[in-house]
Amino acid sequence: MTLTFWISTACADPTIDSGSAPTETGAPGTEELPAPPWPTLQVEDAPILLGREPYGRLGNGVSLSSDGSVASVDSLFLGTKGVRAEARVWFADGSDSATLVGPVDGAGGRTRVWEETADSGFRVAWGVTSTSADSGSIYLFAPLAAGAVSDVADAAVTFNGGNQSLLGFNYLVYDATADGLVDLVATSYYCDEHDVEASCVVTWDGPWSSEEHLVDADRVIATPRGNSGQSDGLLVGDVDGDGDTDLVGGMSDDAGDGIWWVPGTDSQATTILRADDDGDMGYDIDVGDIDVDGFDDIITGGPLSGDRDGQVGVFFGPFDGTRLMSEADTWFVSAQPLAFLGCSVAIAPDLDGDDSVDLLLGACQDPYYGEPFPGRVWVYPGTLRGRVDTYANATLDIVGPTDREGFGTEVEVGDTNHDGLDDLLIGAPHGVGETVEAGRVYRVDGAAIRAATAP
Questions:
Q1: Three-state helix/strand/coil letters over the chain
Q2: Which of 48, 65, 108, 138 could link 85 by a cystine bridge, Cβ 3.0 to 4.6 Å?
Q3: How far apart are CA 404 and CA 388, in angstroms?
Q4: Which of the two residues, 197 and 106, has the higher pLDDT score?
């Protein structure tokens, strides 16, 4: 796709002092925003993928393989009966995308792409929740061919959930037991089959049979409470600094939003981050070493905070005890009403070529209320500390092409064209694809980002 960008006549390379709190310009809720003192990159209306099904909302989730060569893009339905879920898998070499087709009463869940060995090819896992019984399944497919159309009946392995499990909403495929075999780790909204009153996380250790069931899971982890099984955030990282891989997930219920973690191979999750009384967090999560001190850190978004203006918090590890969103080491607040700041967050090794970590903050805009604005993805230096207004100290402002299409709902980082530069895949699920709200996915080339941010 072709990208155009422009640079404002003001300073295009603001100096960031990592040892002091950033300055603030404007105030949250300001509608008249000043001309930004940083580059703006305008994405042209030329997505790499268009959704096909009405209200399919392609782009609610995007998953990249470890080397960025294959991307999987979710399709999510609203739970209406009589519709068929669909997911698309895009190949970075430009070949036709593969299509996965679900059952008539299915709603698309999370899609994952991974490579078991260097010569095994890329495998795809796809979660499909049932709209009739709130159950769900996760389907694992053999390596897909470009242009192929596969039905769930073609899956090599099927994981079936119980009643109200919403299995497939979120899961990970990785070696959770450190035995050299790939395992499946999935959230379950309802866990009465395992005598757990709240949501839980289950693990099926590899190798698997052709059909696995929730009741037969090898490991059950009780989460703190509430809707942890519906969290968009489920990641791994060493958040306590002990050298072991931990599991990190989000939770949301009437008692408040937060983030939980499971140390190593424990069977009980505990809360490490919690929203303030009127706040929101855990909608999206990323884990990585932002301050480059050898310990994993957490960035999390809360797009419903401040009457849907949104906020993002960065917390530096290692973690011990529970912290509030207001205690974040770096706290981004929205300068625009109904921006949904924090609907997506991501950590990038180095987008602008300054040899430092960058932070990506999606502000996908409320698609139904307020003034019509295009969504955007902000890029900030990982060196920022303290409270940051989103109209201060940005490195780059990536703006969607169309109002109210949800541009920025999902953002993933990876070198999709193998030129040595990280690119961005950005979901816009409310965009018009081949029909109404079928969804779109855009690709932002790393070379265009470097050109836009060059001094």
A1: CCCEEECCCCCCCCCCCCCCCCCCCCCCCCCCCCCCCCCEEECCCCCCEECCCCCCCECCCEEECCCCCEEEECCCCCCCCCECCEEEEEECCCCCCEEEECCCEEEEEEEEEEECCCCCCEEEEEEEEECCCCCEEEEEECCCCCCCEEEHHHCCEEEECCCCCCCCCCEEEECCCCCCCCEEEEEECCEHHHCECCCEEEEECCCCCCEEEHHHCCEEEECCCCCHHHCCCEEEECCCCCCCCEEEEEECCCCCCEEEEECCCCCECEEEEECCCCCCCCCEEEEECCCCCCCCEEEEEECCHHHHCEEEEEECCCCCCCEEHHHCCEEEECCCCCCCEEEEEEEECCCCCCCCCEEEEEECCCCCCCCCCEEEEEEEECCCCEEEECCCCCCEEEEEEEECCCCCCEEEEECCCCCCCCEEEEEECCCCCCCCCCEEEEEECHHHHHHHHCC
A2: 108
A3: 25
A4: 106
Residue 45: CB partners within 8 Å, gap ≥ 6? 401, 402
Q: What was the pLDDT predicted at 91?
A: 86
The pLDDT confidence band at residue 26, using thresholds 50, 70 and 90, is very low
pTM of the model: 0.87
Q: Please list the residues that pair with 211 across neighbouring strands.
A: 158
Q: Beta strand 149-151 with 157-160: parallel, antiparallel or unpaired? A: unpaired
Q: What is the mean pLDDT of residues 399-403?
A: 92
Token pair recorded at residue 440: 């779109």
Domain at 4-453: CATH code: 2.130.10.130
pLDDT over 80 (residue 271) = yes
pLDDT in tens, 145-173: 889 999 999 999 999 987 778 888 889 99
